[in-house]
Amino acid sequence: MPLLVHAKAAAVNSGRNAVAILDIVERDFVFGVRTIDETEPYLGVVTEWVDGQTIDHIVGKNLEPLSTKEALRILTQATLAIGAMHELGLIHGRLRPRNIYLNDAGEIRVTGFGIDGALFGVDGKSKITDIAGIGDLLFAMVTATWPSGPIGALPGAEILENRTLTLPSQQRNGVGEAIDRLYEKTQDGSITSTAELIHEISLANASLLEDLRSAVNRWTGHEVNWHGKDIPRPHRLRAVALAIVGTYLFGWLGWQLMTHNFLNTPASLPSRPAVAATPTSSPTQSNTLSATPSASADVWPTIYATPVDARDYDPFGDGAENPKLAKFAIDGDLETAWETIPYFTNSWSQKSGVGLVVDLGKRTNIRQVEVTFSSPAHSGTVFISDDPEPDTAKATVLATVSNADQVHNFSSSQKVTGRYVLIWLTKLPRNQFGSLVGGIAEVKIGL
Fold this sequence. Notes:
Helix content: 25-40%
Radius of gyration: 31 Å
Distance between the termini: 63 Å
Number of domains: 2
Low-confidence stretches: 261-299
CATH superfamily of the largest domain: Transferase(Phosphotransferase) domain 1
Order of helices and strands: HEEEHHEEHHHHHEEEEEEEEE
Number of helices: 8
Shape: flat
């Protein structure tokens, strides 16, 4: 029985954006329904309950398309859900607007894995089929039509003569070239994986921002010509003289402030020499100086450890949080970063957080951990552990922060010893697309 086989295969998918199959009843009887033969056994597939509305209901209700920004946000989440299925070796095969649920929190869920294809037939049996289906979802969201005829509450797109492919901009005014390019690439086979599709979606988002920036520049880039009154020569000479006197006075005051306040540093403000020379305590050699560290650690330059590895840490989710990006947190380049996947609420889908583990290669005395985030407003804790899979209930806490600046120094008055440093994020900032995304551009371990 194809439906039973496909349902069992799809039941292994536990991704957070996929509607889970909870139970499969292979043979049972249904009573009390007039249209069902009570003597005939039926196959039952039980899925979890899903709140929200499907895409066809949202855009088909008033035939109003979604904004491009919102469409790309939803498309990103749908792509991640389909990608998780592909990693399990499974194909959806029949993506339609009714397969995408959107709830009040902005989270999406994908349904129909294994079931819709078995019941209604598949569009194809390859990953490229699903990528084309994701592209059709984009078309539906930005045009409020379906590219291959009417479906559900959506009318069919107008088929243009002498065109093998109708583009979204040909159906709805205001759809930009970036959306057309993205849709065309999903249909012509040039995108072969969901990872490539995520990259193309990010390029479309960047193009939208660039278009907006260009528009702002056009609005504000006009030239202003000032036509003032002609000032008499005596007045101009008086103004020049006053400017010269003022410049001299401000320069003299600045020099006095600098020489009296900065060159003669008060005792309350520690200087930062490599070694501080302080008198010895010997009564017989009261004028002898010895090179000893100051009581304050501030006089010593910070020495940083060299990490040997960094990896994502998602023990309460699906175990993966953009693992290929983890190395960018220790590459010494602030232009690259490890980022979390997008979330829509800080409830984390029942997770307590996600993080990044930095491996120092051996047990090390750690004084501080300087983290450069990709943006401010992160919250979290730095743990030190000898366990490569740190338990946040048992690992040693170095420091905690709430709504941190973009660069934050997690430090302790006492050195903490361990091999692994876990930067555990419990609250993420919201990005320009409305999603909650955490990011770490660089981690520096101070000894």
